[in-house]
Amino acid sequence: MSLAATRRFVDEGREGTNAAPAQRGRAMVGAMDEDRQTGRRGRSEWEDEVPAWQEPAMGSSSADEAHSPLVLREPPGGAAPGRPARLTRRLRHWWRGASPNLRGSVFMLSALLVYAVMVGAIKHVGQAIPLVQILLIRQVIMTLILLAFAAGSLRQALHTERLGLQVSRSVLTLASMLAGFTAVVKIPLAQATAIGFSQVLFVTIAAVIVLKEKVDGRRWAATIIGFVGVLIMLRPSSDGLDIYALLAVFGAICGAGITVSVRKLATSERTDTILIYQGIVLIVLLAVPTWAWWQAPTPDQWFWLALLSLFGTAGQWLITRAYQVGEAAALAPLDFSRLLLASFTGFVFFAEIPELTTWIGAAIVIGATLYTIRKNARVAGPQSAAS
Known about the structure:
Elements: H1 3-15, H2 21-42, H3 45-49, H4 63-66, H5 83-97, H6 100-125, H7 131-149, H8 154-158, H9 163-186, H10 189-196, H11 199-209, H12 217-234, H13 243-265, H14 271-292, H15 299-325, H16 328-331, H17 337-350, H18 356-386
Helix pairs in contact: 1-2, 6-9, 6-15, 6-17, 7-14, 7-15, 9-10, 9-13, 9-14, 10-13, 10-17, 10-18, 11-13, 12-18
């Protein structure tokens, strides 16, 4: 009770000693109420605005403790997850809910990005080191990685029922690499990549000859139109055709042979078996020319050789995983993004500007290839459903 209220209460008590007890009680209550109101008005404005969670805890022993900063307690079960952990959790949740084709698309696009780095590294280091040496080092590193993963079941991985076809496919792979990568080193990346898209057109022809598949008139028309696009990119003139562009075409032909042979091998052979035999055959065939034309790499060149080897291995794994998860018809159109990646890499790192004929020819080849892929998907649909 304040001093003013006490004095007034005493004075009233002196004046009204003969008052009734009820009146004295009401006076006492009024004085206490006035004291509470006075005390509230006496508080500073800052105290009224202080949130409840900043007030000092009951039982504080000192003024320092009363004005100590707020300390948040850890939630039960440890510290709150940080932003990277929350992002990882969200990505994991999204990945689990994604459709098979969406997951396959992620693997496919990742493979194309990895291959873009590998091709750029080959173009860079191929200016000073023979291509056979690059391919041998790449294949040795890739084979060692495959053997390391297959160490527990090496005997099973080496078992094959079609050794002749394994060797033939490996020889085609070597020819495709030598032709395709030589074109990559010698002509603009965008042109070499666009010509490589014609592989699907050659697969149509190989499927008729080797696999005895039936092709209707529309698919033949799409194939012919696609070859017109290839001719536009080759730019035939009175001086003849660019030999390196022709090498890109030959690499696409060999790639079609690889695709057909893999279709035949897939019925009885494992993927790691195919890749291991490819490594063995390529190492044997490349050993002698590499020894004859060996160029001692510099430390910087060793870095690029190791990088392209690792990225080549990762690219093969990613693209194999993509086709294991998603449907081929849904993933194949994504392969055309290689042209954009090749154009970007060539422009940024090698100052290459694709010519108009490259874009026109590429558009024709891509259109014909997309039609062929969609037609193949419609034809394969009923067969797969029946099986």
